[in-house]
Amino acid sequence: MAAEKIVKTEEEWREELTPEQYRVLRQKGTERPFTGKYYDVKDNGEYVCAACGATLFSSDTKFDSGCGWPSFYDANPGAVEMHEDTTHGMRRIEVTCAACDGHLGHVFPDGPKPTGQRYCINSVSVELKK
Asked: Per the residue annotation, which of 49, 52, 100, 120 is the catalytic one?
């Protein structure tokens, strides 16, 4: 089932998000590795989109990839969308929130079983609900 799209103007997003959240979620920025509040957190709960509150990832799928960002081997069904990203001279797969199109990070094919995926997610793009 597809998520219902949340549509807001850029002005509305600027008012609701912190400057750093806006830079990452709306302008496709990134936080520096090992600086985000969740990269080393092992608490149980659900990770929701910091922009719209949609549930994205379970702590059950979080793992320590050593990359400096929170990493998950799977997303909740229908919660995220994938887009080809060829910026910065690289070819990557961008991960966005299916509900609000907020930039979350990128996914790489070098994660653990059972999916083999590594969703490398900006801490500023999510909130942990324990």
From this structure: 120
